[in-house]
Amino acid sequence: MSQTDLAVLQARVDALERELAEKRSEIVRLQQGIKASEVTEGQVSISEFEETLKRLVQRVAMILQAEKCVIMIVDKETGELVARAPAYGISANDLKMLRVKVNQGVAGEVFRTERPAIITDAVRDPRTVKENVALLHIRNGVTVPLVVERRDEENRVLDRVVIGVLSVYNKRYSEEFNEEDVSLLERLSRNAASVISNAQMYRDLVEEKEKLVHTIESLYAGLLLIGSKGNLMQMNARARQIFNVRVDPIGRPYEEIISHEKACEAIKRMLAVAETDNGSLDGSHAAEEIGVLDPETDEERVFQMHAAQVRDEEQKLIGTAIILNDITEIRNLERMKTEFVAIAAHELRTPMTPIKGFISMLAQDTEDSFTFEERQEYYGIIEQNVDRLGRLINDLLNVTRIERGIALQLFWEEVELRSLAESVFEVQRGMTNTDKHTLVVDSEPHEVWATVGRDQIEQVLQNLVSNAIKYSPDGGEVRIIIRDEPETKTVLMGVQDQGTGIPESARARLFKPYLRIHNPKTAGVKGTGIGLFLVKNLVEAHHGTIWVDTELGRGTTFWFRIPKTPETNPDNACAS
C-alpha cells in the first residue's frame, strides 16, 4: 500500500474517531435523558435516537464506499435477525424483507460465530438463499457482529453480548470489499454497538410504555393513579367517561377534576387508609360503592371502588391506584332475583287459594247441595289452577336447568302447528280475561306439519300469547302467524299484538332472566320475568332463532324460526 493510500485511510480513521467521540458524548446525554424521567426540559425523544442512527448508517456507508448499510437486531421472541430502521440505501418496504433465522444465512452465521464475513457474489453464494439478495439488488457485502461490552475501571471485560449484525452492501465503482474494509467495519461496529444498543433499548422502552398506556386506556374498568400530594398521575378513558372529564387531568388535584362529591369523599378516605397502611404491597382495601349518572343515557350506574398502593422496585411509594368496576348489572340482578322470589311466591300462592277454597267447600258439602253442573264447574276451576301451578313449577325447574348448563330434553313428534295454536288459544280463554281481545290463527298453508317438541312449542306459544294479552290492556287482536318455508325446510311463527310496544331501553335485555318491562299502562301486570328467557332457550333447543319487531304504542310481534325436522341425533333430544 502506498503512502498516499495510507494517508487517505488515516484521514478516514481520524474522521471516524472524531465522529465516534461526538457519538459517545451524545449517547451519554441520551442515557442521562432516559434516566431523568421526571425532568421535562431536555428530555430525549425517540426521534433524536432515530436521527443519531440515521447519521451513523450514512457515515458508515460513506466511509466504506457502500451503496447500502443496514443494522439487524436479534428478536429474542422469534429467534430472528430483523432489519431495523433507519437504513441507508434500502426502502422501508425492502427493509421488511431483511429478516433471517439466527441459524440461517450469512447474517445468522456472523451472529452465531461472532466472526465477520465477506460476500463476493451474493446471488451465487449458497449462504444467502434465505436473505432475498436478488430482490434487494445486493451484489456483494461485508457483515460484522454487533457486540456490546461492559468493562470495569481497569478496562477488563465484565460482560459481552452480541445484539445483532452490521452490514454494508454493494461497493461503489464496481469494486469488491476486502479485508481492509472488514477491519474498518469491525472498528466502526465496536464503537457503534453502544449507540445501537442504547437506541434499541430506548425504542423497546418507548414501545413497552405505549403498550402499557394503550392497555390502561382500553380497560373496561376505570383507573385513577393519584400521587402522594393528591395530584392525578393517570386517568384512563373509562374513568374520564365515568366522571365526564373533558380536560387534560394529569398533574391536577383530583378534587378539581372529579365533580362527584361522594366519589371525592370515598377517594379521600381511601388515600388516608393508604397513607397509614405502612406499605402493604398488595395494598387492597375495603371497597366502596358509588352511584354515578351516565351522561349519555341518564341512567345511574353503580361502581365499586378499590384502592391499592403502587410502589417501585425500591419499595418507594409512587401513588395510590383506584379501580372503578361497573357492578350495575350485578346489583340489578340481585334486585331482580329478590323481586322474583317475592313475585314467584305470590304467583304460587294465587292458584293455591281457589284450589284450597273450592276443595274445602266441596268437602264440607255433606248434603249434596250443589248440582252436578256446579260441581263440574268447580272441578274445572280447580283443574285450571292445578295446571297453572304445574306450568309455573315447570318454568322454575327449566330456568334452574338452564342456569346450571343442563340441556333441555325434547321429545320429538310430528305436530300439526295450526291445531296446536288453536289449543293454546283455548287454554288462554279458560285462564285469562280475553273478552277485549280477538284471537286469530293465521296459517299458510292451512295445515303446517313439523317434527318438534310438542310440549316445548306449546310452552313457547303460551308464554308469548299470555304476554300479548297482558301487554294489550286496551284489547285488540292477538294473532298467531304460521308460515311454511319449503325452500329452507323451516317454519316461521310469530305472535302479534296491538299493545303498548317495548321501549328501546328494554330491548337489548329482553331475553334476560328476571327482567320485567316497566310501563305506566301495564304497571299492574303480574309475572315472574322468566317467560321470554325460557322462550328463547326453548327455541334455541330446536336449533331455531327468535327476534322481535316492536313500535311504542302500536304493538309487538315476536318471531321465531325453527327447522321442520330436527338435526340428526341432537344431543339434547329424545325420540318419542
Summarize the structure.
The protein has 576 residues and is α+β, with helices and mostly antiparallel strands. It has 4 domains: 15-208, GAF domain (Beta-Lactamase); 220-326, 2-Layer Sandwich (Beta-Lactamase), CATH 3.30.450.20; 331-403, Signal transduction histidine kinase, dimerisation/phosphotransfer (DHp) domain (Helix Hairpins, Orthogonal Bundle), CATH 1.10.287.130; 410-575, Heat Shock Protein 90 (2-Layer Sandwich).
Question: What would you note in describing this structure?
Answer:
Helices cover 42% and strands 25% of the residues. The chain is an alpha+beta fold. The chain has a six-stranded antiparallel β-sheet, with helices on both faces. Strand 17 (545-551) and strand 18 form a beta hairpin. Helix 1 (3-35) packs parallel to helix 5 and helix 2 (46-63) packs antiparallel against helix 5 (179-218). Mean pLDDT is 79; it is low at 26-44, 279-284 and 569-576.
Cα shape: elongated
Helical percentage:
40-55%
Count of helical stretches: 14
* Radius of gyration over all CA atoms, rounded: 39 Å
Largest sheet: 6 strands, antiparallel
Terminal-residue CA separation: 102 Å
Q: How much β-strand is present in the residues?
A: 25-35%
Number of E strands: 19
